[in-house]
Amino acid sequence: MFCVSDYTIKYKNNLNVVYSCKYHVIWCPKYRRSVL
Predict the structure, then answer these.
(1) Which of the four, 15, 17, 20, 34, has the lowest number of CB atoms within 10 Å?
(2) What Å distances lie between residue 27 and 6, 9, 12, 32, CA to CA?
(3) Domain segments of the chain as ranges
(4) What is the mean predicted confidence (pLDDT) over 20-28?
(5) Is 14 left (phi over 0), alpha (psi -120 to 50) or beta?
């Protein structure tokens, strides 16, 4: 979740970082649901 709070800062630094961060945040709960 702390990736989302740093979204603005990372967005200015590197677009790839933001994309990876958002992708991870979106997929993390989905993967956890499958495991649980």
Answers:
(1) 34
(2) 18, 22, 23, 9
(3) 2-35
(4) 51
(5) beta
